[in-house]
Amino acid sequence: MKLAITGSTGLVGKKITAELKAAGHQVVKLVRKVSNSENEFSWNPDTDKIDAKAFEGVDAVIHLAGESIASKRWSSEQKMKIKQSRVKGTKLIASTLAAMDNPPRVLVSASAIGFYGDRGAELLTEESTTGEGFLAAVCREWEDATRDAESKGLRVVHARLGVVLSKEGGALKMMLPPFLMGAGGPLGDGKQYMSWIDLDDAAKAFIYLATEANTSGAVNLVAPNPETNANFTKTLAKVIHRPAFFPVPTFGVKALFGEMGEELLLSSNRVSANKLVNSGFKFTYPDLESALKHELN
Ligand SMILES: NC(=O)c1ccc[n+]([C@@H]2O[C@H](COP(=O)([O-])OP(=O)(O)OC[C@H]3O[C@@H](n4cnc5c(N)ncnc54)[C@H](OP(=O)(O)O)[C@@H]3O)[C@@H](O)[C@H]2O)c1
Questions:
Q1: DSSP element (H, E) containing 11
Q2: What is the mean pLDDT of the segment spanning 6-16?
Q3: How far apart are CA 56 and CA 161, in angstroms?
Q4: By the number of CB atoms within 10 A of the CB, which of 150, 190, 269, 289 ranks highest?
Q5: Minimum CA distance residue for ligand 1 atom 30
Q6: Region 111-136: what's the mean pLDDT?
Q7: CB 199 within 8 A of CB 12
């Protein structure tokens, strides 16, 4: 098949691109820099610039691009960037596809479990209501931005990603240094649920949703076994053979990371993987210990 991808230089995009190529698919990348090969097309979501030729003959589009959520403190300027890069970029992709005579059949557009907000131990399915806070508002607008593609009849999937585990980037890479020094521990009271997914399974799920599955609408991309932060901490410490005796209290997380810390580190999301599993997807790393051993050993 021929697939187009945005955000191909990111943590998830790099893995998806490599896996697609290894499986013999043709990959077209939409990049924000100047394109330098026949399989790359430049686009600029800030200025609404895009070359519709990028999508000619393409079967499915995987759209990941957006300003990093965790790289900087959430100033009002940074929050605007996080939101606008996703909403404008997604609208641009969707309207470009909708204007084509023969558009791709499928658009798998990234979203996040931040959609649900802070929900304690409630088991969250795709039918659950959205929550409160900045990330939930971003996710709602991000998902709404695909509307033109849906109206045109594409099969549109909103892939609500959980915390992607990889030592190459994202949350695990940031958490690891204090744990390796033996100074790790739970965050806040440790009761908050973390719904995680191994990077390999995240990439496999995007490819499955784009090339094989029949499902549409929101799909949670999380492993079937969410863990509390306390259990996550214990398992991580066990896998890397280090102690984890140094909790970071709630006020410490807030002081260090501000609003970002509250929404990303202290917020509780216990998210169900049932829709993905029932659609026929098979996880390689369904439990946390096997995922962490795979990533870290
Ligand atoms: N990793 C996670 O744990 C996680 C969890 C939930 C949701 N997600 C979402 O899933 C998507 C992929 O995640 P990821 O971890 O691979 O993200 P990432 O490593 O931050 O990569 C995102 C990519 O988006 C593009 N990008 C960066 N800033 C941008 C901007 N201002 N405007 C438009 N494009 C921009 C870049 O690609 P180019 O330079 O090639 O354009 C970048 O490589 C993201 O939208 C992310 O929010 C990730």
A1: helix 11-22
A2: 98
A3: 28
A4: 269
A5: 67
A6: 98
A7: yes
Between CA 84 and CA 21, with CA 34 as vertex, the angle to 5 degrees is 90
Work out the pLDDT band at 297, boundaries 50, 70, 90. confident
Nearest to 159 by CA among 99, 128, 92, 114: 114
Return the CATH number at 157.
Answer: 3.40.50.720
Q: How far apart are CA 251 and CA 265, in angstroms?
A: 12
Give the residue numbers spanning the domain of 79.
2-296
The pTM of the full predicted model, rounded to 2 decimals, is 0.98
In the chain, the number of structural domains is 1
CA nearest to 206, candidates 196, 195, 219, 224: 219
Q: How many Cβ atoms are within 10 Å of 71's Cβ, its own excluded?
A: 10
Residue reference for tokens 């810390």: 261
Q: For a pocket test of ligand 1, which of 30, 64, 86, 90 has the largest count of ligand atoms closer than 8 A to its C-beta?
A: 64
Q: Is 36 exposed, middle or buried (0-12, 13-18, 19+ CB in 10 A)?
A: exposed
Q: Which residues line ligand 1 (CB under 6 A)?
A: 7-13, 31-32, 45, 64-69, 81, 85, 89, 110, 112, 161, 163-164, 169-171
